[in-house]
Specification:
Layout lengths: L12 E11 L4 E6 L13 E5 L2 E5 L1 E7 L2 E6 L5 H5 L5 E5 L13 H4 L3 E4 L4 E10 L4 E6 L10 E5 L6 E5 L4 E4 L6
Parallel strand pairs: 8-13
Antiparallel strand pairs: 1-2, 1-7, 2-6, 3-4, 5-6, 8-9, 9-10, 10-11, 12-13
């Protein structure tokens, strides 16, 4: 059920998915899971959403596979119009619910905000987001101003060993083998 109570933004949120288009007339929606195992999104509860600038909790009633999709039914959402209001809304959970990672693995949230420095010491900017492309993830790196090469934004493939040489989360620095002119 959607919480009608206004709440401040819950602490330590991480995006884990997004509602897709409506399915049928009884309030079901397609869902896009951003978790490594798509079904693990359902183990992290409660879900938080933001609509019209306000945070709300939302309760999962049911989910099931359908063709190549997974569809969900949210408590209190009983018709197509109500479900349609959730289309394209991101789903957040408290990051403390996520499992601990083994050494060398990272959550995307840990990489956002890191400085990106080349192996020769050139500061490319800061990671603002990551994108999934299918073949490999991509770091979106933005500089505050255009640099000497005229770049304000770069897309770097997240290919460990080849491009990504070192990640130090204590100093929030990612060292890369990347030509700043590219």
């Amino acid at each position: 059920m959607l919480s009608q109570m206004k709440m401040n933004k819950p602490e330590n949120l991480i995006i884990v998915g997004k509602f897709g288009s409506c399915f049928g007339i009884r309030g079901w929606l397609r869902i896009f899971s951003f978790t490594e195992d798509p079904e693990s999104i359902f183990t992290y509860q409660p879900w938080y959403i933001q609509r019209a600038g306000e945070w709300q909790t939302i309760e999962l009633e049911a989910y099931k596979p359908h063709s190549n999709d997974t569809i969900v039914k949210m408590a209190g959402i009983d018709d197509r119009d109500e479900a349609n209001a959730l289309t394209n809304i991101e789903i957040f959970v408290n990051a403390d619910l996520l499992p601990e990672l083994v050494e060398g693995d990272f959550y995307w949230k840990d990489l956002i905000g890191c400085r990106v420095i080349t192996t020769s010491g050139y500061d490319l900017g800061q990671v603002t987001e990551l994108m999934e492309t299918g073949s490999n993830d991509v770091l979106v790196v933005k500089a505050n101003l255009k640099d000497a090469f005229g770049a304000k934004e770069r897309l770097l493939p997240f290919v460990e060993q080849e491009v990504i040489k070192n990640i130090d989360l204590t100093t929030k620095v990612i060292e890369v083998d990347w030509d700043p002119a590219f």
